[in-house]
Amino acid sequence: MSKSLIEMPPKGGFSFDLCKRNEMLAKQGVNPPSFRKTGTTIVGLIFQDGVILGADTRATEGPIVCDKNCEKIHYMAPNIYCCGAGTAADTEAVTDMVSSQLQLHRYHTGRESRVVTALTLLKRHLFNYQGYVSAALVLGGVDVTGPHLHTIYPHGSTDTLPFATMGSGSLAAMAVFESKYREGLARDEGIELVTEAICSGIFNDLGSGSNVDICVITKGGKEYLRNHLQPNPRTYTSSKGYSFPKKTEVLLTKITPLKEKVEIIEGGDAMEE
Amino acid sequence: MNFMASTQPENRLLGPQSDSQRTLYPYVTGTSVVALKYKDGILMAADMGGSYGSTLRYKSVERMKPIGKHSLLGASGEISDFQEILRYLDELILYDNMWDDGNSLGPKEVHNYLTRVMYNRRNKFNPLWNSLVLGGVKNGQKYLGMVNMIGVNFEDNHVATGFGNHLARPILRQEWHENLSFEDGVRLLEKCMRVLLYRDRSAVNKLQIAKITEEGVTISQPYSLKTYWEFSAFKNPTQGAVGSW
User: Fold this and answer.
1) How open is the CA angle A150-A155-A156, to the nearest 5 degrees?
2) Domains of chain A, start order
3) Is B229 on the interface with A (CB under 8 A)?
4) pTM
5) Do B240 and A200 touch (CB under 8 A)?
6) What is the pLDDT of residue A28?
7) What's the pLDDT score for residue B22?
8) In the CATH scheme, what is the code of domain B27-235?
9) Strands, E assignment, A125-239
10) Which residues pair with A193 in a beta bridge?
11) What is the ipTM of this complex?
12) Tens digit of pLDDT for each residue in B3-33?
């Protein structure tokens, strides 16, 4: 009795063992379930004081709109936000993961996160998975070195740009940017241009729709304008309103505030820059 | 008994011999054409590039031609098929003139003829690999239509082919309005062509703008658009972000 096979170390990455079987099944008419994509328009631009990111809010599952008002602008750090296009699960997971890594890094170094850090973490991860993590991202933020805007492609390549668009509506949005962008835009002009680009995607691309989300990041802080513009309101709403049957009745309310176990001492040595 | 399998496939169209007779892929192609209706007629713009695959082989291809007295045809796609279409239309106009009845084919009629030609070729699995834009004015009526290689045709206030569908159409939808002046129309077309120049890899910076009004057709001399590359982020992209690119 011989286990002649050498013990192979466990391989990381994706396993493609079932691909042949899937192909055979597809030929016989059994198709895999379609996954939720954010067929999207996401944009970013650098203006005078920082970065403005914009995104539409439609998430599609094949030909169906599965979420009319999803959030595509993800938090990475207090001064860095990231818009994601492609497979929704991939963009969520990858931005969440890098966001936690950035927070740990902030605790470790005691400094504000830099955009290049997020950029490098994201592109290393995506390259590692050779494009199978289908996340196309527009990363923007302001750190000590200034405002930055990057695009990251699913295979791991990045670009540093003054204005960027990604997603299925990227051409429609890019048409607006290429004809109207100039340097040194003021905040309101920047927001208007981003809104116009997203609207161009919403109305000219079938994979994008619903509302416009905006995030303005400056040195002072960030402003997340959720549903800044809603150009697709419900056409007919019931004038009677919507009434729902009575839910569980509340009989008694008692609130006990939690007591702090640990005393937090403010002050201590200031961190050196 | 020897039953020989038939070497001639039942469907002659898809047999090996007839393959060489059908258009399977385009070779020398022109990129987008953009057109819009304005106050006095139609304005159409196309660049002068003919690409051979990924090479920019020909840089002086006129992709817009006047047809008869009232129409202007712009084409994107296979250039040889465009030249064939011009021969068909030449014959059509010739026969129309031979009637010598004071009547002449207007843009709507030419568009209809082209639609029939394109759709019939598509049905025979031998398409003319083009997207055509047909514009014209007859008796004060402006007409602007499009036909493509599978026979899809429609009429609209502004049309674009190829990449223009994705890049120029959004701009036109937002900024076109009724009764544009000539200068505004040209400015709008140039805006679209500039975006196409930036973002379409097969575009060349040598374009012609054609105008058709009740008086007739004028195709401008070739000229190039001014482009802007002086963004500070282009000059020094990794400023402050050392290590990225």
Assistant:
1) 40
2) 41-229 (3.60.20.10)
3) no
4) 0.81
5) no
6) 85
7) 81
8) 3.60.20.10
9) 135-143, 146-152, 158-160, 163-166, 212-218, 222-229
10) none
11) 0.80
12) 444 444 444 555 555 666 788 889 999 999 9
